[in-house]
C-alpha cells in the first residue's frame, strides 16, 4: 500500500490539475511499483472526497480573484450615490478607487445634442452599421452574439426598431463596435465629458453605442473594466450587485451569471435596483454584476476610455473551471 504521504501528494496534485500519467510517473520515480502507482492514482481520482476538494479549490480561486479586485480598487459596502459630477481628482478618489457606483445627473445634459433614434436616422441613416438580430429565439443571445450579427444601414435598423412596440429581437450592443466606425465619428462632436475623466483620443475605440426598442435585455453579467453608462434617450432599469456577493460568485458563468433577477430577492442577495432616466449617467465599477432592461426605446453610450489604467481582464471568476485530470 502507498504511504499516506504519497497519497496526500497525489491528491494535492490532482486538485491542482496535474495529469494522472505524470503522477503515476512521479510515484514510480519514488519507488512505487507501476501497477500499484496506477491503481493508487485511479482510486484517488475517482474518490468522492476529491470531487469535494475540487469544488473547494474552485471556490478558493474565485474568492482570491475577488480579494485581488478589492485590493486593486479598495473595499466598499454596497452603496449607490447620487451626486453632481465632481472634478477628476475627486471622481477618481471617491468613486473609482473605492469601487463605488454613482449616478450623475449632469453629464449628458452638457452635450451639444441629445440623440434620439429619429435624430440618428436623420443624420446617419445611410451609414452601414452592425447589429444583432434574431435574439429572441436564443436563450443566450448575448453570449452567442456573433451568431446574430448582421450589417444594414442605420436607417433600416431604426425603422425596424421603431416598428416594434416591445421586444428583445434586435439590438445594437457593445460587441458591434459601431462607435469606432469613421462614418459615425461626428457623433463625438456632440459629446461633452467632465474634464480629466477620459482619454479623449481613445473615446471612439473605448465606447459602445446601445440602441434598441423597449424590452431589450442584457442579463446579469459583469464587465472587466470600469464604465460610465450614459442614458441619452428613454429609460433603463438596472439591477446592481457587488462582486463580493458569494451566492453570485458560485453561479458565475464566464462574465454572465446563471441566476435570474427573481432569485436575487428570494436568495437574500444584496442588490440595488434603479431606473436610469434620459440625461443620467451611471458609473459601474469593474466586477459589479448588473442586469439592464430597456423600459422605452432607448439610446445609451457606455464609455470605458478613462484617463486611468482600466484593464481588469484577469478578473473572470466565472471562467475558472475545475481542472481536468488528464490521462
Summarize this, please?
Helix content is 30%, strand content 20%. The protein is of the alpha+beta class and 327 residues long.
Features:
Jelly Rolls; elongated; four-stranded antiparallel beta sheet; alpha+beta; six-stranded mixed beta sheet; 327 residues; single chain; 30% helix; 14 strands; 20% strand; 2 domains
Derived from helix and strand composition plus strand pairing, the structural class reads alpha+beta
Q: How is the main sheet built? A: 6 strands, mixed
* Rg over alpha carbons: 24 Å
Number of strands: 14
Number of helices: 9
At the fourth level of CATH, the homologous superfamily of the largest domain is Cupin
Q: Beta-strand level of the residues, as a percent range?
A: 15-25%
Query: What would the average pLDDT be, to the nearest integer?
Result: 88
Low-confidence stretches: none
Euclidean distance between termini CA atoms? 22 Å
CATH topology of the largest domain: Jelly Rolls
State the helical fraction: 25-40%
Q: Look at the structure and give the CATH class of the largest domain.
A: Mainly Beta
State the strand order across the main sheet.
1-2-12-7-14-5
**Architecture of the largest domain, CATH level 2?**
Sandwich
Shape field: elongated
What is the total domain count?
Answer: 2
Order of helices and strands: HHHHEHEHEEHEEEEHEEHEEEE
Amino acid at each position: 500500500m502507498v504511504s499516506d504521504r504519497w497519497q496526500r501528494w497525489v491528491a494535492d496534485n490532482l486538485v491542482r490539475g496535474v495529469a494522472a500519467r505524470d503522477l503515476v510517473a512521479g510515484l514510480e520515480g519514488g519507488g512505487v511499483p507501476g501497477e500499484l502507482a496506477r491503481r493508487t492514482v485511479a482510486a484517488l481520482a475517482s474518490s468522492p472526497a476529491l470531487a469535494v476538494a475540487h469544488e473547494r479549490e474552485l471556490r478558493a480561486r474565485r474568492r482570491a480573484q475577488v480579494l485581488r479586485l478589492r485590493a486593486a480598487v479598495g473595499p466598499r459596502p454596497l452603496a449607490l450615490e447620487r451626486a453632481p459630477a465632481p472634478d477628476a481628482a475627486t471622481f477618481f478618489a471617491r468613486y473609482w478607487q473605492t469601487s463605488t457606483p454613482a449616478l450623475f445627473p449632469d453629464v449628458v445634459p452638457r452635450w451639444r445634442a441629445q440623440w434620439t433614434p429619429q435624430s440618428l436616422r436623420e443624420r446617419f441613416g445611410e451609414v452601414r452599421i452592425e447589429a444583432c438580430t434574431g435574439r429572441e429565439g436564443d436563450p443566450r443571445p448575448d453570449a452567442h452574439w456573433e451568431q446574430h450579427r448582421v450589417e444594414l444601414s442605420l436607417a433600416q435598423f431604426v425603422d425596424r426598431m421603431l416598428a416594434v412596440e416591445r421586444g428583445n429581437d434586435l439590438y445594437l450592443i457593445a460587441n458591434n463596435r459601431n462607435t469606432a466606425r469613421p462614418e459615425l465619428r461626428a457623433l463625438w462632436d456632440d459629446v461633452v465629458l467632465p474634464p480629466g475623466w477620459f482619454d479623449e483620443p481613445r473615446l471612439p475605440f473605448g465606447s459602445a453605442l446601445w440602441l434598441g426598442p423597449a424590452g431589450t435585455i442584457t442579463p446579469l453579467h459583469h464587465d472587466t473594466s470600469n464604465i460610465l453608462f450614459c442614458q441619452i434617450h428613454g429609460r433603463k432599469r438596472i439591477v446592481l450587485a457587488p462582486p463580493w456577493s458569494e451566492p453570485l460568485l458560485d453561479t458565475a458563468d464566464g462574465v454572465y451569471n446563471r441566476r435570474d433577477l427573481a432569485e436575487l430577492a428570494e436568495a437574500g442577495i444584496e442588490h440595488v435596483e434603479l431606473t436610469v432616466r434620459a440625461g443620467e449617467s451611471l458609473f459601474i465599477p469593474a466586477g459589479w454584476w448588473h442586469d439592464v432592461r430597456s423600459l422605452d426605446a432607448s439610446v445609451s453610450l457606455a464609455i470605458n476610455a478613462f484617463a486611468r489604467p482600466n484593464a481588469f481582464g484577469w478578473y473572470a471568476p466565472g471562467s475558472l473551471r475545475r481542472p481536468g485530470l488528464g490521462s
